[in-house]
Specification:
Rossmann fold, 6-stranded mixed β-sheet, 15 strands, globular, binds pyridoxal-5'-phosphate
């Protein structure tokens, strides 16, 4: 299988190249050249364990990796999860399910992709002998999950930009208390979007990218999207047979990566009924689905900080298909949006999508209501997925983080402590972080000075 760029200005590449580069050299995002039809496999896959399912799914895409090696890579990637099902389903009522995606080492769904990505990188470095520098920008959970996926991997130096003071103290500890010598958390003054913009400019400098072996771990990396596809398959198989084709997947959304993964699996033939894009008060995607206008707004820090995003980078992948797989049209839309801060669609082809918006006051009320009604503690991101919807039919809410990552919000909402042993252990450790200006020059200089050779 080969992979193409959404912007269509570079030749197709192999799986390993797409993973190593992250962002395509034309600043587009990689997608499979054709989407496979999964229907013939569904029966056979139904009884597989999570890791087996992941291996079977990836073997369709990662055709340039030896099957035995792929098996090892995948098997290693799900050993640090603390639940035997990896992505367990909790039934709250006949009409309401939760898909818990927080049983990985950093207690957020991003571990599903980043544990795997770390092992893909390691295998690749072993094959090529070429070291990699990873640069990422995080609104909290990506950075922690990336750092824990890449900790101690031979040949990888990791640099993670994050908005200083705008991520939760525990998220910061997960990134800064590792004691690892190949990991550099970079605290910048500004928002997540500032961090992401600076990072994108660094990636556009192709000479620098080649010099340091630059790779991206943000959700622009195709391997992350594919890894996230697997839990939609797993959830589908683990739901009762009479529910699975009638259930809407509700996805707390920021960068549109998680929900895009589900939508791709649906396009590959998994009979998912539909998706609800659940945003917080940073609602560019909710406004888009309601008004067909994609319009930039300021980022307002919220109780669900990992969704404090306005420019949803993975939306470009959706656009590619929605606009008839036409890279020229994608380039035009992205350019117009970049120049004017908005794009008005004539007709957005988004069948199967609904959306909701939840502000901070509602997040607190929802956490309280869900706890009273079901005895279930939802983290503030997951709470956005529990926003009440009229006539929704059965829903499965993707729980994207463990509540213990946001103890203050939980305490305020239900008057209870939410703790987790792995987070308690971090409180004893020393914080190591570096202040860097959010400019491409400053970031490049810091990287050149700190790459572990
Ligand atoms: C990253 C994150 C999200 C948003 O996911 P996207 O793929 O960016 O839409 C939601 N909740 C939590 C807890 C996250 O870490």
């Amino acid at each position: 299988m080969q992979f193409i760029s959404t912007r269509g200005q570079v030749p197709p590449v192999s799986f390993s190249t797409a993973v190593a580069q992250g962002l395509a050299p034309d600043a587009g995002l990689y997608l499979p050249e054709t989407l496979p039809d999964l229907k013939p496999f569904l029966k056979e896959w139904e009884g597989l364990s999570y890791a087996e399912l992941c291996e079977a799914f990836f073997s369709i895409f990662a055709t340039d990796i030896d099957p035995a090696e792929l098996k090892t890579i995948v098997a290693k990637s799900y050993t640090k999860f603390d639940h035997a099902d990896i992505a367990p389903i909790v039934k709250l009522s006949e009409e309401l399910y939760v898909l818990e995606l927080f049983h990985g080492p950093t207690l957020a769904f991003k571990d599903f992709a980043l544990q795997l990505l770390g092992n893909l990188y390691e295998a690749q470095i072993a094959r090529t002998g070429k070291p990699i520098s990873v640069l990422g920008a995080t609104s909290g959970d990506t950075g922690a999950a990336a750092i824990h996926g890449l900790l101690g991997k031979e040949g990888v130096t990791t640099f993670i930009l994050y908005p200083d003071g705008r991520i939760s103290p525990l998220q910061e500890r997960q990134m800064t208390c590792t004691g690892a010598s190949n990991v550099f958390p970079l605290a910048i003054k500004g928002s997540f979007d500032d961090a992401q913009a600076a990072m994108k400019t660094v990636f556009e400098d192709q000479e620098f990218a080649a010099e340091v072996g630059l790779s991206a771990v943000n959700s622009i990396n195709l391997a992350r999207i594919l890894a996230q596809c697997v839990y939609y398959l797993s959830a589908f198989f683990r739901l009762p047979a009479d529910v699975r084709e009638n259930v809407t997947f509700v996805v707390p959304t920021g960068n549109f990566g998680n929900v895009l993964a589900g939508w791709l699996v649906q396009r590959m033939g998994l009979p998912i009924k539909g998706f609800r894009v659940a945003t917080n008060q940073n609602d560019i995607l909710h406004r888009l689905f309601q008004t067909e206008v994609y319009k930039l707004d300021a980022v307002a820090p919220s109780l669900a900080p990992s969704m404090d995003i306005q420019v949803a980078s993975n939306f470009e992948r959706f656009l590619y298909y929605a606009e008839g797989s036409d890279p020229a049209k994608v380039r035009e839309i992205i350019q117009t949006f970049k120049d004017t801060g908005e794009y008005i669609f004539e007709e957005l082809k988004a069948e199967g999508f609904s959306s909701s918006r939840t502000d901070d006051a509602e997040i607190a009320t929802i956490i309280q209501r869900v706890y009273e009604q079901y005895g279930y503690i939802a983290d503030p991101h997951t709470a956005c997925g529990f926003a009440p919807m009229a006539d929704s039919g059965p829903e499965i809410v993707l729980s994207t983080a463990h509540p213990a990552k946001f103890p203050d919000t939980i305490q305020e909402a239900i008057g209870q402590d939410s703790t987790h042993p792995s987070l308690e252990a971090l409180k004893q450790r020393e914080i190591v972080k570096h202040a860097v200006e959010p400019t491409p020059e400053a970031i490049k200089a810091f990287m050149r000075a700190h790459i572990v050779r």
